[in-house]
Amino acid sequence: MWPLGHVAVAYLCYAFATRARFDAPPAQIPVLVLVVGSQFPDLVDKPLAWYLGVIPTGRTLAHSLFLIVPLSIALYALASHYDRREYGIAFAIGTLSHVLVDALPVLWGVEGSANHLLWPAIPVEEYEQGPPTVLGLLRESMGDPYFLSEFVLAAIAVVLWRRHGYPGLEPLHAALERVRPTAG
């Protein structure tokens, strides 16, 4: 799945969770933490595999439940210590939704595997001809229904995000205002 799809799935999961737990939409800062969590596995694994070559594929270390679950628990504990439990929950939902959604095509019979979920206990298939390129992956994805479904999920997430008042934008706007040079 591409970054847009991961953010969309994470937001939909988190919005459902906050509605079920608080009967309220997601809060500002937790949504930003959610976005980081939804991208975390790829931000770690892709550079380590594609550019540094220290892990076998772009879905290994940070896509493994052996890392994600303890990391999520540790971040939740740290956030709880600072009375910010929701930050830990948002990160966990973002990152767990990422690795689980990456495994979905296997359930649909599409090629690939879910071995990344239990790496290194279960090996992953290494790249045959070196790491892929972003352009090459995009070209391969164009006719794939799984890829196209990401846009549907993103549209639904954007509608819901708008309905919730665009949580996450307010703190970003405030941060930009603080760093914006003043005229004078």
Topology at a glance:
Layout: H1 3-22, H2 28-51, H3 65-81, H4 85-107, H5 134-141, H6 145-163, H7 169-179
Helix pairs in contact: 1-2, 1-4, 1-6, 2-4, 3-4
Describe it for me?
It is a single chain. This protein has 184 residues and is mainly alpha-helical. It has one domain (3-124, 131-178). The chain is 66% helix and 0% strand. It has helices at 3-22, 28-51, 65-81, 85-107, 134-141, 145-163, 169-179. The protein is globular and about 50 Å long. 33% of the residues are buried. The mean pLDDT is 92. It comes from Natronorubrum tibetense GA33. InterPro entries: YdjM-like. GO terms for molecular function: hydrolase activity. This is Membrane-bound metal-dependent hydrolase.
In short, what is this structure?
With 184 residues, the protein is mainly alpha-helical. The chain has one domain.
Keywords for this structure?
mainly alpha
* Poorly predicted tracts of residues: none
Shape by Cα distribution: globular
Strand content: under 5%
Rounded to an integer, what's the Rg over CA atoms?
A: 18 Å
Biggest β-sheet, characterized?
Answer: none
Tally of separate helices:
7
Tell me the series of helices and strands, N- to C-terminal. Answer: HHHHHHH
- Secondary-structure-derived class: mainly alpha
N-to-C CA distance: 47 Å
Mean pLDDT: 92
Protein name: Membrane-bound metal-dependent hydrolase
Keywords: Hydrolase, Membrane, Transmembrane, Transmembrane helix
GO molecular function, one term: hydrolase activity
Transmembrane segments: 60-78, 90-110
